Structures are given as structure tokens and as C-alpha cells.
Amino acid sequence: MSLFQGDKCRPCPESWIQHGEKCYHFSKEMKTWHKSKEYCSSWGSLLLKIENKEELDFIKSQASFHWIGLSRTAIGHGWVWQDGTAHSTDLFPVKIQEPGEKCALFKAGEAFSHNCTGQYRYICEKRATQKKATERAQGRLQYPWQS
After folding, report:
1. Which of 19, 53, 70, 84 sits 20 to 30 Å CA-CA off 139?
2. pTM, rounded to two decimals
């Protein structure tokens, strides 16, 4: 799929949902956590990282039983987002269901630990591509990496 359709540039790939400055893919197919991560990576995206209450509220309204980008390397270690940043429980905790579970599943507005080999839907996210206002006026596309 392409971001381009004729002369128009879309901020998100086809079938992805834009919310604010991000694009989200809510999968219909089911995969393990690791296969979900690989799929998102093939689109230049990561599994979902919830960064604030507004984004959390949006995800709550859209998703149930989806893998998100939280995991931990060992029992007792903290939860880490796919990009390597530590998860803060200020926004939401990860409820531990079984001690050995190392991946996080988002359901009913909360995150739960789960076995990484379980097959669930997943959410990918990436930054939306945006044209600068001056470039829009001139009819040229400005990519984020060209700013």
C-alpha cells in the first residue's frame, strides 16, 4: 500500500486511522506478540505505545483484546515499551495474571500480562506524514525528514 493516491498524499497508509499526529492500524488478523511486532516493523511502525491520557481514552474507545508494545525481559523486571522507554504506571498499571507472562495485552481499557505466544489482534502506530503549510500552498510535498 502506498501513501499516495493520484496526486494526493495521505497522512496515513490506507486502512489506518489517523488520530492527532499518529496513525493507527487495528488489526483484524491474530498473531503472537512477536509476529505482531514484526508486522508493524514491516510498515515502519511499532506496536502501540500509549503516551498520555488523551491517547489512552482514544484507544479505549477503539480496542479490546489487542497486543500493545509493552514487554519485560524477566519476572520482576519492569515493563518496557518497544522503543526501549520504561513504562510509567502513572498512566495505567499492567495487571499481572501469571508470574511468567512477559507481554502486554490491552483489553477492557486496561493492560494485562499475557503469554507472548497467545494469538490476538494488535495495534501498530506511526507518526502521520504531514505537509508544511508553506509547502501545501506551493503544491510541493515536504517530508518530515526534510525539515
Report:
1. 19
2. 0.80
* SS3 call for 125: strand
* C-alpha cell at position 78: 519492569
Indicate the SS3 state at residue 127. Answer: strand
Which three-class secondary structure state does DSSP give residue 134? helix
Which helix (H) or strand (E) covers residue 26, if one does? Answer: strand 22-26
How many other CB atoms are there within 10 angstroms of residue 147's CB atom? Answer: 8
Give alpha helix (H) positions in 1-147. Answer: 33-42, 53-62, 133-138
Q: Is a pLDDT exceeding 80 seen at residue 144?
A: no
What would the grid cell of residue 48 be?
Answer: 502501540
CB 3 within 8 A of CB 9: yes
Q: What homologous superfamily is domain 16-138 in, according to CATH?
A: Mannose-Binding Protein A, subunit A (3.10.100.10)
Q: What is the pLDDT of residue 8?
A: 55
